[in-house]
């Protein structure tokens, strides 16, 4: 099984970026399918490693074909590989994502687009007490790997919350994500899979807290059977 990313993946995407049309791609589709199969093996091997320390469902690999119906960019193909691993609901929340692209490879974790009810529950928790989340965000080893939380936020305060609240920077968030970028050299290295898995493993304190928040009410009573 493939435990490294093939260099041919970057070479193919660099050429595709300059020739993003169906004729060019169809002529080279067998080459792409071979590269895709190797990369998918990598993603599946990473899945096994994640399952040693977390409960995640099957890998979801995203197709190379772009949905151009509502996009100004009409290029038919993506120039990256992407795959996600979701933690098993309802007990566990959050997920992992890995993108492989020339000059734009990264991993991402957290909550990209929480449902309306979940978003309100998170905000209410941070309004009540943000001690635990701040302890995680300010942990030196955590910050060394993931840096600061990223994502969109409302400009002032969500409806029903005070813009003067001491935790408003957390409350006004709409997304609660972490992103870690990698160079092409790092992606092609022999230890890349282990590096990614270590980073994913280090996010667990955050996932544990958020899962606890999203499966209980403000009194700590479980919302799941």
From TrEMBL:
It holds the Pfam family DUF2461. It comes from the Bacteria. Signal peptide: none annotated. NCBIfam families: TIGR02453 family protein. This is DUF2461 domain-containing protein.
